[in-house]
Amino acid sequence: MLKRQKMKAVFVSYNQAFKDEILDIMLKAGVKGYTNWEEVTGRGSRGGEPHLGDHAWPTLNSAMIAIVEDNISEIFMKRLKVLDENNPLMGLRAFSWTVDSTI
After folding, report:
1. Residues ≥6 apart with Cβ < 8 Å to 17
2. Which residues of the chain have pLDDT under 70?
3. What separation in angstroms does the CA of 4 have from each of 1, 81, 101?
4. Helix, strand, or coil here: 51?
5. How far apart are the C-alpha atoms of 80 and 21, rounded to whole Å?
6. What are the CA-CA distances from residue 100 to residues 20, 39, 97 (Å)?
7. The pLDDT value given to residue 56
8. CA within 20 to 30 Å of 93's CA: 15, 25, 37, 101, which one?
9. Cβ–Cβ < 8 Å for 96, 31
10. How far apart are CA 84 and CA 40, in angstroms?
């Protein structure tokens, strides 16, 4: 029987201005693979301005998801939290959940 590695999915939605910082955090946390959406719109649930890409709210977000080992997920999430706390008006949200299986 194969021993299965515990994995997490980490989804990050962030102000496009954070792109370089997010990629640097990923590199330092050991996140290798990810899927990225360059332009996403949305409105946060903790206040702040909407990021809709229109004339009234011109800012846009990006989003990404990475499937990583549990220990890498913890490091990644902690570093994202620091970035968010240091830039509360920019817009960054991250979520993680358990991955049951992968192929």
Report:
1. 90
2. 1-4
3. 9, 28, 9
4. strand
5. 9
6. 30, 28, 10
7. 83
8. 101
9. no
10. 18
